[in-house]
Structure formats: structure tokens, C-alpha cells
Design brief:
By secondary structure, the chain is an alpha/beta fold. The protein is built from 15 helices and 12 strands. It folds into 2 domains: 111 residues, Nucleotidyltransferase, domain 5; 184 residues, ATPase, nucleotide binding domain (Nucleotidyltransferase, domain 5, 2-Layer Sandwich), CATH 3.30.420. The strands form 2 sheets. A 6-stranded mixed beta sheet has the order 3-2-1-4-6-5, sandwiched between helices. A 6-stranded mixed beta sheet has the order 9-8-7-10-12-11, sandwiched between helices. Helix 6 packs across helix 15, helix 10 crosses helix 11 and helix 11 packs across helix 13. The longest helix is centred in the last third of the chain and has 25 residues.
Length: 365
């Protein structure tokens, strides 16, 4: 089955056609996309031959959409209803779905949800300590995100760490958005993002977790509006807010190497949060066998990997400095005396989406 994967990000669009054996037949990447009509994308899709199915990355599936699902009008309405929980991502996913349904009306589209992988979280892991009537009325709970990336990286870990135990895996999806996932035997048991993609780690422009009392103070004593707080936490915080850069880790590292103190602080805060949350994941799993770095920062920043590993030495996480510096693609970075396997895995959400599409449609599609 040839699958066209539509990965609509908050500001970009990647289209990739995968052969039945997952070889890349063709792809198109629009680095800047506002969710509107794009002639280049439409022409590219129209020019494709032999598309058997379309798979769409959708960030939020809520509590109802917990597995890959064939898209119909009802599914579109359900995805749209979740827009307030992922306002940067849901509209783009819907735009990608509309594009495929209009240009390939006879080809089945399947929505694959980032939240679905975390449907196996225990009650203790997913429950917020909020009033019961709040939780039941609005389904206030931890959903988790980046599930497609975490699922693929965790599965790759079991393939790559053949000479070590690989049951308890922490996957570190570090990009513009960032989260950790804890998986035991391929099942998600904990994660850092929660009700929305704003919780957890420090990200490029997102704050990650902050004291909710601080947010209340900003609204009450600070005199800010809800929209101003929302914009500040999602667009002007994180590495950008700390360093004064765009939030791109490459800019942060360059400024830090030049002795810029805000950039140095941004790096330290970022690493502190990542390492601390990895240690918390180990508690959730009852131990730690593998740490996997993936995503743009996870794959391309040996400085981040080294600094995180240094803080986790008490868990017997140790890097081979040469392997870390030279890592490219999927690689084993662990030093010979490291009890924990340390891996880099190239992010391939497209492969996970294609796998789920084929599983959902079956061999007869």
C-alpha cells in the first residue's frame, strides 16, 4: 500500500509519499505554510500516481479518538472541536485533511493522533488533582503529545539496543516543541505534556510548566488579559524568552559560545528540566534501560545530549564523547561502562503514520 503522509505542523507542511516497503517515492516540504491554499502543494499532489491511502498527523484526538481513524465528516467535526486545546496545530491538520479530501476524493484518509499513544497512561499518571466536578465536566486530564514520534523512537530502541535490556525506555523528543515519553515494553506509562502541548519541558517559544499561581497573579495583579498571557506563554517564552533569540537552539548555542549570559542561562534551564524529567520518568517505570534522543535538537545537538547525560551520571548514564560528537542518523552513543543504553534515533513520524494507516485499513485496501 502506497501511503501519502500529510504532516501539517504549526507553521509548516511536509508531504511524503511512501512505497509499500516504506521507501520514499517523493516528498515536498513547505517550511512556511499558513494553512491556506498553496498552488505548489496542490500541483504536487495532483501529479502523484498510485496513492492508495492518505495518513494525517493530528496533534489532539481527545478522549474519544484514541486510535488511527478513517476520516469522515463526523471525525472532522471532532477534530475541530478540540482546537481550543491545540490552537496552533488543529487548524493546520484540518487544512491538510481538506486538501487531501478535495484533491484525492476517492482515496481514504486516516487521521493518526499524537495523543493516541498515551491512551495507556494509568489513572495516576493522567489525573490532575482538581475538583471532581471540574474533571468530569470538562475531561481535564493529561493527554500527552508527540505520540507518533515517541512510538516510533521507542520501537527503534528495541531494535538498536540489542545487547542491552531495552524494556524501560525514555524517549526525548526535543524540537521546537519538546516532550519526554516513558514506555515499558512499548506502552506509554508517563509523559511530560498534559492537557495541552504547553505543559512540561522548556521549548523554543513555549514556557513549559509554570506555577499556576503565577498565571493567576499575571491575570489579577499583573493586569494582563487572557490573550496576552496565552501569547506570552506560547510564543514569547521558552528559549526565546530566556535568551532573547528566536528560540532556535542553534542560535542559543552560538550566543552561549560567545559568552552571552542570557543564552547560557537558557541552556542551563533547558538541560535542567530535561534531565530532571528523565529522572522522574525512571520513577514511573521502576528503573531505566534506554534513553533515546530524537527531534531536531535531540538529533543535532551533541552539547545538549552531553549536558543531559552528565546530570544523569548517578543513574549510570554515560556517553562516549566521540560517538556523541560524530552521531548521524540512528546511532548508539553509550560509553562502554554505561549501564543505560543511550541512542539517537532519526525522527520518522511518517513511518509511524504509514504503519498505523495500513493497520487501520487492512491488506485489502
Amino acid at each position: 500500500m502506497r501511503v501519502l503522509v500529510v504532516n501539517a505542523g504549526s507553521s509548516s507542511l511536509r508531504l511524503r509519499l511512501l512505497e509499500a516497503d516504506d521507501a520514499v517515492a517523493d516528498d515536498l516540504h513547505l517550511e512556511q505554510w499558513d494553512g491556506g491554499v498553496d498552488a505548489a502543494a496542490e500541483d504536487w499532489v495532483r501529479g502523484l500516481d498510485g496513492v492508495d491511502a492518505v495518513g494525517h498527523r493530528v496533534v489532539h484526538g481527545g478522549s474519544a479518538l484514541q486510535r488511527a481513524t478513517v476520516v469522515d465528516d463526523d471525525v472532522v467535526e471532532r477534530i475541530e472541536a478540540l482546537t481550543p486545546l491545540a490552537p496552533l496545530h488543529q487548524p493546520r491538520a484540518l487544512a491538510g485533511i481538506r486538501l487531501a479530501r478535495e484533491l484525492l476524493p476517492r482515496t481514504p484518509s486516516v487521521a493518526c493522533f499524537d495523543t493516541a499513544y498515551h491512551a495507556t497512561l494509568s489513572e495516576a499518571a493522567r489525573t490532575y488533582a482538581l475538583p471532581a466536578d471540574w474533571r468530569s465536566r470538562w475531561e481535564l486530564r493529561r493527554y500527552g503529545f508527540h505520540g507518533l514520534s515517541h512510538a516510533y523512537a521507542a520501537r527503534q530502541a528495541s531494535t538498536l539496543a540489542t545487547d542491552r535490556a531495552a524494556s524501560r525506555v525514555v524517549t526525548c523528543h526535543l524540537g521546537a516543541g519538546a516532550s519526554l515519553g516513558a514506555s515499558v515494553d512499548g506502552r506509554s506509562v508517563d509523559t511530560t505534556m498534559g492537557f495541552t502541548p504547553l505543559e512540561g519541558l522548556v521549548m523554543a517559544t513555549r514556557s513549559g510548566s509554570v506555577d499556576p499561581g503565577l498565571v493567576l497573579w499575571l491575570l489579577d495583579e499583573g493586569g494582563l488579559t487572557v490573550d496576552e498571557v496565552a501569547d506570552g506563554l506560547a510564543q514569547r517564552s521558552g528559549l526565546a524568552g530566556l535568551s532573547g533569540t528566536s528560540g532556535d537552539m542553534r542560535e542559543v548555542l552560538a550566543a552561549r559560545s560567545d559568552g552571552d549570559e542570557p543564552a547560557g542561562l537558557a541552556f542551563d534551564v533547558y538541560v535542567q528540566r530535561v534531565a530532571g524529567e528523565i529522572a522522574r520518568m525512571a520513577v514511573s517505570m521502576g528503573g531505566l534501560d534506554v534513553v533515546v534522543f530524537t527531534g531536531g535538537v535531540g538529533e543535532a545537538s551533541p552539547e545538549v545530549r552531553a549536558a543531559v547525560a552528565e546530570r544523569l551520571a548517578f543513574l549510570d548514564v554515560r556517553l562516549d564523547s566521540d560517538a556523541n560528537a560524530d552521531a548521524s542518523g540512528d546511532a548508539d552513543l553509550a560509553a562502554s561502562d554505561s549501564r543505560v543504553a543511550v541512542l539517537v534515533v532519526a525522527a520518522r513520524e511518517d513511518l509511524e503514520i504509514a504503519r498505523q494507516v495500513r493497520e487501520e485499513l487492512g491488506p485489502s485496501a
